[in-house]
Amino acid sequence: MLENIFSNTRDKAPYVHNITNYVTVNDCANIILACGASPIMADDIAEVAEITSICNALVINIGTLNERTIPAMLAAGKKANELKIPVILDPVGVGASKLRTETALHLMKEVNFSVIRGNASEIKTLYLGNGITKGVDVNDADKITEYNSAQAITMAQEFHKHTGAVIAITGEIDIVAGYDKFYLIRNGHPMMSRITGTGCMLTAVIGALCAANPDRILEATVAGVCAMGICGELAYSKVTSQGQGTASFRIYLLDAMSNMDDDMVMTRKNLETLM
Amino acid sequence: MLENIFSNTRDKAPYVHNITNYVTVNDCANIILACGASPIMADDIAEVAEITSICNALVINIGTLNERTIPAMLAAGKKANELKIPVILDPVGVGASKLRTETALHLMKEVNFSVIRGNASEIKTLYLGNGITKGVDVNDADKITEYNSAQAITMAQEFHKHTGAVIAITGEIDIVAGYDKFYLIRNGHPMMSRITGTGCMLTAVIGALCAANPDRILEATVAGVCAMGICGELAYSKVTSQGQGTASFRIYLLDAMSNMDDDMVMTRKNLETLM
Amino acid sequence: MLENIFSNTRDKAPYVHNITNYVTVNDCANIILACGASPIMADDIAEVAEITSICNALVINIGTLNERTIPAMLAAGKKANELKIPVILDPVGVGASKLRTETALHLMKEVNFSVIRGNASEIKTLYLGNGITKGVDVNDADKITEYNSAQAITMAQEFHKHTGAVIAITGEIDIVAGYDKFYLIRNGHPMMSRITGTGCMLTAVIGALCAANPDRILEATVAGVCAMGICGELAYSKVTSQGQGTASFRIYLLDAMSNMDDDMVMTRKNLETLM
């Protein structure tokens, strides 16, 4: 099911409009390029609709949302819907403040998202329509493990039905749900949580892959989640062998994405399909 | 005196709210994670007090201050004081413009800071209540050397008395003053001034260590200054041995912080205690 | 003609004021430091003129322009003209939105630029006073190759006459035009387009070199273009030999700039002078 997701992206070199945070924006731009797509960052209300119009997908990330960028997110999202290009939401830190929760819920009301990716606490907050998260990290009680994944799968599936979006809940185990199918993905490495931006970067990768594969949103999302996890595994193996730390890990992770292809995804994916 | 500063940070994994600049924000987030703490960047006035409320420390860095973020800095600072969590100020480039000087002085009037860290020109500007600095670097005339450190120590001690904050003046020689004690630290390497953000990163590290050790602000600050200098030394030794440049140095410096522990601080610190 | 451009920069350590985008700002700051100059990023209208006043050059990059920063760009540009220090324009993505095109044209009307650097589509947009570019990348039809460079050279020369600015059009082949001279530069490597910010970084390098060599704007620009390309070549040779990817490439490129000197530029430049 994941055939050609990456090769399509490298062949088409699609454009991805990002309205994102200023913390991880450089990593997001670089990982989109590493996938073979081309990033455009633009967040002024006077140009976002026009920029979306020349792009193949839109990624909205609320990591450092503010009064100036929130209306821009809405305007770009509506334009993307009008043009029927994929829109991906990363509700960073939703639940940590009223502003984040209300903004994300408002965006979900006004914009049809193709994919929503967050950690378990963020998705739970959106699913329940409220909630309290502790900053940008998942709450311990919400973490998905082998023992509680059934509950998270149900939430993902229900949330998918409510929103129509493919739902990706990422953490130690990743869940992707959409169109009566759901997947568990066990790629990745704990060191990924020791650098900033692995979540944001994954969302950017999903944006790139969806831009090139707009009729295969579910597959593109699954491929993106697998690929990111594989990059984490590859990066960790390099760090271990050279006795380095988290900054080298980050470089190796981006390196791995720049060399990623469909074969690597197929060979190394740790994917369980549930129906 | 520096026992367990790092192990407490790694054990507690505290949250650090940062209102900081967009130049070095990614490095600040990554070095906070490298210390074992968790960074949250949020700067909209509509959410900063709420974000501060779920955190264990607040770092205010005026590197790219603007009319939108200055009120947010004030609001977050006041909330942090109300909650009695540590607040750290990095007065980047103070003295280079009226906006910076007035903002920093206003912040100091309205918010009680636990730690203020800057270079000698920045601290001198705040100490005198005015002054002219040349951009974000220390003026040559203000540089602390073995020959003029006595004067800088006096300034640090006086400034501590006026503000109640632990004062860290960093440069070739670092001075930390607080509670009738002062320290000279001779760790570090000149290559640290050839990359952007070593000052900002140090302030972020101090924020992380203070978040986990709120009753040991002076010790946490000293440990942070020593640790950052040690990381610079370790990074330089790797660069030298491989014939690389400043970008590799930056990676190795962050790597070193991700592997830092109390033993390393105790063993390699070059710390002189003056009473 | 390129003698001492780098040594002057390392000797004088000039200050470069940057009003730039939040995507590549960290890379811009680090590469300015790598050249031996000192970056200052400040974009609030309340301080930009004052910051420009303490600097030796100003770089304006419209990559993530917004309603708050556009007036700041104008104010800083006018102050730089008044002080007769070099002003460099990077019209990122001009043609991709009315906001970008109108802003860049307005800036060119109100500010005398010393250097304008962009890709072929961006320069064409400014030259024609309008145009459509596809995001931040060059349009395929505009790419400069061995077969169509004559046309691009004419455009560069004409645009120089209209504006008085040295014009640098960068891509597979780079063109620099100014003062009845023009140059073709064939340094560089295609991997440079697989990371974000090589264009922005080159503009920042030109800013640093012009800051130290204000009477040799044309030579400083040519030296910057050659040096950036050489860094790309050196970085690629390291990546190839170690089987790494684009993130390592970016580190090696910055490393190479931190070790760049006039000898290296003279020895490795692939420069054709046309009169």
In CATH, what is the homologous superfamily of chain A? Ribokinase
The largest contact between protein chains, plus residue counts on each side, is: A-B, 33 and 33 residues
Average predicted confidence as pLDDT of chain A: 94
Order of helices and strands of chain A: HEHEHEHEHEHHEEEHHHHE
The biggest sheet of chain A amounts to: 9 strands, mixed
Please estimate the helix content of chain A. Answer: 40-55%
Apparent shape of chain A: globular
CATH architecture annotation name of chain A: 3-Layer(aba) Sandwich
Distance between the termini of chain A: 14 Å
- The Cα radius of gyration of chain A reads 17 Å
Number of helices of chain A: 11
Total number of strands of chain A: 9
Task: Name some characteristics of this structure.
275 residues, UDP-N-acetylmuramoyl-L-alanine:D-glutamate ligase, homotrimer, nine-stranded mixed beta sheet, alpha/beta, globular
